[in-house]
Amino acid sequence: MAGDGKTEVKSDEGSPLINGAHYKRTVTLWSLVAISYFSVAGGPEGTETIIQNGGVALAVLGIIVIGLVWSIPTALMTAELATMFPENGGYTLWVGAAFGSRMGDIAGWLQFISSAVDAAIYPALFLSYFKAASGLDNLAVWADWGIKATFITSMFALNLTGIGNVGHGSVGFMLLLLAPFVVVIFIAFSGAFTGTTLLGWEFNTANWYETPATADWSAFLMVLLWNMGYWEGASVCAGEIENVGQTFPKALAIVFVIVVANYVLPILAFSGLDNDWEAYDNGYYITIIRRVGGAHWGILLGAAQCFSAAGLYTSGIVKNGYLLCGMAEQGMLPSAFSQRLETSGAPWLALSVCVTLTLAFLPLESFTVILTVDMNLYCLALLLEIAALLRLRTTDPDRVRPYRIPAEGVWLYLLFLPAVVVSLFGVFWAAWQVLLLSLGLLVGGVLLVFLLELLRGTNPEWFRESSGVQHFVDTKAGDASSL
What we know:
Shape: globular
Structural class: mainly alpha
Number of helices: 16
Distance between the termini: 5 Å
Strand content: under 5%
Helix content: 55-70%
Number of strands: 0
C-alpha cells in the first residue's frame, strides 16, 4: 500500500493548488450535516409509499428496525473509515486499500452509477413539486424541459462555486425544506387528544393502527432501504472537511437523529389527517395538506419539496463529482478529473461529467425501476465496504483511526451481520428483468475497470497522482495479494 504518511498541503493564501490537491478544507460541521442529510434522506417524501404498502405502524417500526440493524452500523463504518482515510474518494479508498485498486475501481463504479441513476430522478421531482406549488399543471413540453434545464444548470453553477458554498447552500435548503413540515407537525399533533387541531383540522390517531387493504412488501422494503441508506455518501469529499477526525463522527450522529425524526413525525402527522391508504404515493402529503388546510398550505409544502429536490440533486453532484476527483488524485482515474477552478477549487471536469450523465438518464422516468437498480448496485457496493472495514481491522490494525467502532473480534462481526443480511436482500430482491439490467451495469463496470488497468499500463502519464494529498491505493497492484 502506498503513501502511509501524511503529506501536508501548503499554499499561500489566494494561490490555491489547482492541479488536483485541495487548496483548503472549507466544509464545517453543519455544512457536512446538511450534505450528509441530503445524501441519506432529503425530506419526508418517499415515506408515502411505505405507508401505502405497509401501514403507519409498520412504517414507523420498519424505520426504527432498519435504522438500528442497517443504518447505525453503516454510519459507524463511515465514521471509522472516513477518518482513517481523510481524502476525497471515500469508499474507493477503503476498498482499494483493503483489496487492491481493481476492487476499489469496482466499488467506485457501483456507487457512481447508482448515484447517477438516482440523480436523474430529481429534475423530474422538482418539476412535479413546482407544478404542485404553482398550480401550473398544463405546461407545454418545451416549458417542462426548460424548467428541468434551469434546475440542473442552477445546481451545477452552485457546485462550481466550491464545496464550501455547496455546504452553506445545503444548510439553507435543509432549513427551508424542514420548516414548513415542523409547522404542519405541530398543528397536526395539537389534535392528538381532542380530534381537532388548533386550526380545526380533523385528526384521528386511530388511523395509526389501520392496515392497507393490499400490500406490496417488496416495494415496502425497497423504499424503506432507499430512505435509510447512503450514510457513506459524503465520505467522497472527506478531503474538503475541516478537522475531519472530529467533524465526521459528530455530523453523522446529528444526521441520524434528524433523519429518524424527519420520517417518523411526518408519517404520524399526515396519517392522522388522512387514511386513504391507496392514494398514498410520492407527493401525496401535498394533496393532504391542500385538502385540510387550503391551497396556500399546498403551495407552502410544494415549495418546501422544491428545496428538497434541490438539496438531493446537489448532493448527487457532490457524491459523484468528488468521487471522480478523489480517484484521480489517487491515480485511479486520469488526472484530468482532478483539475480545479482557480477561483473556487471546484473539480470542474468531474462535476461536468456528472451533470452530463443526468441529462443522459433523464428519459428514465420509472421510479420503481430506478429505485430497484439503485438499491441493487448500492447494496453490492455496501457489502464491499463492510468487507473492507473487517479486513483492514486485521491487515492494518495500527493505522491511526481518529474514530474507532468500540467493538472487536466476534462482536464486530455480529454488529455487521444483520446489515449484511439486509444488504443481500437489497442486491437480489427484484424482478428478473431489473436484475438483468443491474447485472449488465455491473459487467460494464468490470470491463471499464480492465480498460483503466490497460491504460494505466500503457499511458501512465495520464494517471499522475496529485501532490499534496495522502495516497492510500497502490494502482500498480490490481488485487489485495500484491499489497
